[in-house]
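Exercise 3.2. Students should predict the tertiary structure of the chain below and write it as structure tokens, then compare their answer with the key that follows.

Predict this chain's 3D structure.
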Amino acid sequence: MNEKVIVFGGAGFLGCYVVEELLKRGYRVTAADIRKSEYLPEACEFVQCDIMDRHAVSQLITSDVSYVYNFAGMANLDMAVAHPVETIESNIMGNLNILEASKNKNIKRYIYASSAYALSDRGSFYGVSKLASEKLTEEYYRAFGLKFTIIRYGSVYGERAYGNNYLYSVLKSAITEKKIVHDRDGQEVREYIHAQDAATMSVDIIEDEKFSNGHIILTGIERMPRVDLFVMIKEILGNDVEIVLNKEVNDHHYKLTPYSFHPSVCKKLVPNPFIDMGQGILDCIREIHEREHGD
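Answer key:
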């Protein structure tokens, strides 16, 4: 296999994992992002590119490109609430720039990285931007025949994460401050999926035509309330961690399910086999400890 793939946001947390998985399967990969990551493999071509620069985006997507992934844009819900203009610009206009550059280029499929919040009334500007971008992606198929797959990711975690990843922030606080502070009652349920599992299925999707022009919910089978997650972390770290639940309701985060009714059909995929949650957390703890202590 020698097909060319461009991954916008390829230097980000999940983007790096997808780049690696593509390379393992023999694809030629270009990662486009505003800055390079230390985790990008040498076999990957890196191009510095801001998706808000329409000309730069259009120059990257040439007629020899088979697949385009878009992981770029605002990915943090709380940051999106605080910065609505930047969120709308990067998540909607940035996506539009990539779609526009991709049409009429004989691309086999455009893969848009969305979120479960696209189907929720609790996602504030982040959810709105993701849903609008989904609609734009669908419309480019109807108007120009640009095939697509929209992937709505659940709660992704793993090594190489950073401050805007929820689980990373919790683990870092537990390790460095011996405390986990949470502004709700901890009963919010999430389905956690390791980034490697998410990346594997993200590449599986382009290798099966049945996922063309459809919506996929990509999540794990590790379903648990957040308070149970906190207790698991506390036990792994030797119980020397204080758990503080402020029980203040943050209306932008869902409790049991992100979904509000929207008339669209969506398939759910779960990894099989999958990385065990306890093992995944342990690996993250080791990495954070090494970062903090330099060993």
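Discussion points: The first helix runs from residue 13 to 24. The chain has one domain: 4-251+264-293.
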